[in-house]
Amino acid sequence: MMSPSVLLPYIYGLNLSKNEFGNNQQFPISLQEMCNLRWLELNHTNTNRLPEFIGNLKSLEKLSLSHNNLLDVPFCLNNLTSLRSLSLRDNHVSHTQISARLFNNQDLSILDLSHNNLQAFPKDIENAKGLIVLNLSSNQIEQIPAHVFVSLFELVYLNLSDNKIDTLPAQMRRLTSLQVLILNNNPLSRAQLRQLSSMILLETLHLSNTKRTLYNVPAILEVLPNLSDLDLSANNLPSVPEVLYKLKALKRLNLNDNQISELSSKSDSWPQLEILQLCRNKFKSLPQQLMRCTKLRRLYLNSNQINLYGLPRGIFNLEKLEVFSAADNNLETIPDALCRLGSLKVLNLNKNKLLTLPEAIHFLQLKELDVSDNPDFVMPPKPKECQKGSGPAFYNIDFSLANQLKLAGQVAPEQPIAPTDIQQKRAARIRRLNKPEQRNSPGSGGSSETVLRGMRETAKRKHALDSNMSNNGHYNDNEEIAGRRWDEQIERPQLNYSEFFDGSAGHTAGITCWEIENFLPKQLERQLNGTFYTGDCYIILHTTVELSGNTDWNIFFWIGQDATLDKQACAAMHAVNLRNMLGASCRTQREEQGDESDEFLTLFNRRIRIIDGARTETGFWVVRDVEHPTRFYRASGTQKLHVELVEIAATSLDSRYVFFLDVGPRLYIWNGKKCNSMTKAKTRLFVEKLNKSERKGLSELIQINQGEETDKFWKELGGKPENFQLVNHVADDFIPPKSILYKVDLGQEFIELPQVELEPGGLLKKELLHTRNIYILDCHTELFVWIGKKSARLVRMAATRLACELLSMIQRPPHAVITKTLEGAETQVFKSKFDAWDDVLAVDFTRTAENVSKKGADMKKILQENEMKTNLTALFKNRPPWQTREAAQEALEDWNIFLLQPFSMFVYENKKFVKLPDDERGQFYSHDSYLFVARYLLPTEDESMDNSELEDEIKDSDTERIVYFWQGRNANNTAWLSFNFTFKQELIDVLGDFEIIQLIQQQENQRFMAHFNRKFIIHNGKRRTAAQRMQMPVQRLTHTQMYHIRWCYSTIMTRCIQIEATSANLCSEFCYIVTVPLDSGDIIGIVYVWIGNSVHPDDALLAQEISNEMYNDSYTIQVINEGNEPENFFWVGLGDRLPYDLTADYMRYMRLFKCSNDNGFFVVTEKYADFCQDDLLDDDCMLLDTGMYVFLWKGPTASIIEVKFAAKSAELYIQHLRTREPDRPRKLRLTVKNSEPIEFRKCFHAWSKHKNPPRDLEKQNIFSISQQEQQKQAPKKSHPTNIFV
């Protein structure tokens, strides 16, 4: 084993902050051996000088010496030629004690000299031309030399706050790369800040307490497009400067400590605002326009004059609000709308005139609620769990069916007699039949009952098949009723496999190996793949990724000839667990040492390495004598018990503390005479828990009070000194040292030891320990090496040696030790260093409403004004009846009768709109955009005249023009922008006024669809351009194409859409067009028009007509009926013959409801029959009725209130259907985006991957209307009427 010192040259980073190196404490000399050290942090070390050997660390790039006692910049730093970052924050350095040589380093890019004694800029600082971050805040600088910023033009961050600067040099205009400028607390009364005009990249500008007025707030701020953080606090501004309303990119605005009394109506001009600070001003109310800043997360209104009516009702729009602070105001209560903000975490209302709060305050998941200093305040009681309505989780809204039907204006149905007696009798009968003695008694016919039950199930399936065939008019006598496969009958157990395997396993092509250790699989490093020990067992996963993107797996488990039984069993068991986690269909293959299969050996190129022995330990208990090293601990603290290792000697005792001595078989507790009783009780509980968890309760617990010590105790403690007098040697102001948590990072050629960042307060949390890592916990007298279960073996070895170096590097008492602890087997002493990890006493800090409630608030009167409302009427309306074929045909003719001449059709191609060939009419591509110009004859009172007779007499006033803009589902917005800015004006010059209707794929209206006579075809991909068609007139197919013909609500809405080519997408109630490519010859492919057995004759004829229009003579078209498919091409072209649906009952029941809270109250609306996948909105919840299930679909950004109310609405809808359709009971199922089941997806025509909507249609419609109004007001011109010819 190599010496620990050999490890030092491989250390690249080290954080020794919060250790004591001052007051004559020895500085770690071992640093000089770290010749490859790249970064070093020595913050909070009480250092007053650095040793000279620091200058020999030539590779050092980052050095942090913040919060120390340095009086100057050490000269040894001038030798650090690789130094890039230097922090001397919060020391005692003056500008005369900084060597000019320091700035000759052209690599120096970050310099922090804040909180020092600088009275001027350091000499020659302009030579450091590579500086990008400069912090000189909190000094005594009075003037900025004009020449400084001539060279420092690469600065990105500049902080000059808390100085005495009264003007800024004009040379600051050269800082064109500056992004952050902080000038707080400087008397800049003479500075006009004209230099800001050149800082176009500026994002943060802080001008707090800089003598700003309405006249010297620079108006050039509006030319800074990236300004997102602005601070104008403490400037006595009487109002908000107008230029601030022009800053559209603002995310944080600080206007604290001014004299502002109101915000103007322009406050909605901050769409990106997230933090707004208005404390200590003169506000009495907030404008309603501010509530349109929907991204606001924090709102601070402390110390103003705001009352209840000063908070707008529209505050519920701030759904992302997390912090609302309105302390020291005139609030008597808060609006109920504020309690509907599900994201609210902090609510500060202290020093107001509060009487009470809305009862809904209990529904918020608040982390902090401050209502102190409100003398007349009465906390509302928590609502009872059983009350009218649906309970507190649903704001006490009555979701009962009777109440909601009453609100919808309908009569509640009569409730049937409760079948409780029938249910009870049926349950009793089932219990009697299921008694073990009857079920298993001899002669009870158990085996015959099993046979009969199987026959009944088979007969039911056959009867169902007969019913379907009789309805379709066809029956196949050769059809066999196949039983379920064995693997289909197996249900996978719902296990959490993340405890055994990493979630990324099986997602990358290659070989992954695990070894069995202590009953669990542990992943091996890739370098060890193919190396096996005879005493171990392994799991091997071979992952392959096909060109199509499908993943395939092969799983092996290898058994060594000397492996113990537990390893063999666990290897087989966890191999199955791995298969279940991946969802693989392969079998697990057993490979024994010396009898490996060729398939297994091929994985390692037939080169596997066998080593005698075992690398891992067995999970069986091994009987051995466990040696417990003697430890002596001092316990202190009442709220939290602090345990510290001390020297094993009588001189360590102190009468104000409790000590416990651990000698293995015996645990002594020594109580001092002056110790706290709570500490005494907690220490005993602590030792009892230690004995139970670590010693199995076998150690003897001995409690001794001061003055009652036995000879055996003194002997265990090392003996009682002669003339021993107990002295209270611990200082009265003793504070236990804070523990430091290091993380061991190991790369290929380096080691780093950074400190783990803690939350505010410096508390250690159990969650900081990750199972893949190794940590060193430095408690000064005891170092713990915590080893994660999934940590690498090399890191474990390095961590142990690094702990030895850390132990000797810092001056410690002689009794300091290193203790190893494994994840899941931590000692009680180690756990005590962390907050709330297996505490000795569980403390309940919660208080009920009764503890703080007072009298005098009329809750009913206050809550009546802000009662939350719902509208669920759509759930109780009948499903809209579908249009008959005759009515649809009549409507189609009506839509077309007023169309004058055919469409003028254009397609967006090569950044312009070009004429679309007539043979492509009705054929669309999902990646393209199209334009259709239509001219309609306005209906007149005289219907006896034919349009053809009036064609020569048609006037512009008798017609209307509509331009349809159709955008494919996957098309971008380029075509739409091109149309609005270029092509639209050309059409206006020719046509005059017209209406624009934008249509998105599968969201077309009936009028548009009627013009295609049910021949509306949508292809996937992008249309071939004219140049591509000329270059290659005939393009051969590379894969099978499949089109699905389907309509909803009306036959006018018939679409033929390309879908994934698989036989699983077939259904007997629809027609499909399948094109199978041929490799050679004049015939490009075979087109099959597949007619389902339940298809209407009109739809079958339509499918043939569509295929004839889609394909030319280069294809062979065949019409085939279901059941007569050619095996050689049809099923082969679709990949294989897979089971498919024989019916589409969901088409006769499906309904889609939108559940939204956008308008401040919960409302359910129905999207009528012709809905598509893009109607599923991310911000809302949707309800889909399929006739068998009611799916609750949750959008990714839906609020928790919408989810709760949507769930209640779904239950209410199902309850309502039980009375309307008792023969078709529905089941409620939950699904989320990207995880929808097949029963959900098949209700949407041509389901594919989700996408974001291409644009906001409502805004577009408003835009179109405004444009039309402008066009109507413009003078009309005479235009030719023969443009459509």
Automatic annotation (TrEMBL):
Composition bias type Polar residues, residue spans: 439-450
Protein name: Gelsolin-like domain-containing protein
Keywords, alphabetical: Leucine-rich repeat, Repeat
Coiled coil: none
PROSITE patterns: LRR
GO biological process assignments: actin filament severing; actin polymerization or depolymerization; barbed-end actin filament capping; myofibril assembly
GO molecular function, one term: actin filament binding
Name of a matching Pfam family: Gelsolin
Gelsolin-like domain: residues covered: 530-601, 643-714, 758-830, 1170-1222
One GO CC term, this protein: actin cytoskeleton
Organism (species): Rotaria sordida
Keyword Repeat on entry: yes
SMART domains per record: GEL, LRR_SD22, LRR_TYP
Renumbered residue ranges of the record's region Disordered: 432-452, 1266-1285
